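Data card: per-record layout.
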Amino acid sequence: MTINLQIARKRLTDLKVLTEELSKLSAQNRKPVTLDQQSTGRLTRMDAMQQQAMAQAQERNRVATLVRIDQALKLINDGEYGYCLSCGEEIAEKRLEIDPTATHCVSCLS
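The structure for this 110-residue chain is written out next.
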């Protein structure tokens, strides 16, 4: 395999740290919206609720990304990183450069 596992591990670790930092930074936006009718109008509350929902959706995506990162790091530790989980063939290096958490080759995805 031509994939440099040290580089892949570093990219995955960096991505994990960045994802965790983004999660911490957005924690305030995911908190429940106060429905104080005296201080804000209905449209402002609706806008706040929409922003909260978007922040929660982004957090769900970040959690899924963290799961994929942990899975990829486990595959590196097990010596199985870079191989398709469906067919066992090597995943293209360019694909892993774009998405280091990829677990399937292009053929198996289509």
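Known properties of this structure: The two ends are 23 Å apart (CA to CA). The mean pLDDT is 87.

See the next section for split statistics.
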